Amino acid sequence: xxxxxxxxxEGHLLKGMxxxxxxxxxxxxxxxxxxxxxxxxxxxxxxxGLKPLKEALPxxxxxxxxxVASQLSFNTH
Length: 77
Hints:
Blueprint: H1 6-18, H2 31-44, H3 51-56, H4 63-75
């Protein structure tokens, strides 16, 4: 069996989302966390990158979850 890094899988999911591939987000991020990140994106913005968002969110929110939510925000605007 091939060992694939988690970040590789995450990167492929994000690339697919950017290309319009339907991804079942319930397997990736729960709705409550998604909504929290999206609210924080509206408050903090994305102009300075992901670090200010990460710092404004609880520690358990991963950079991957932030990337998913920001990709969704980008796709809907």
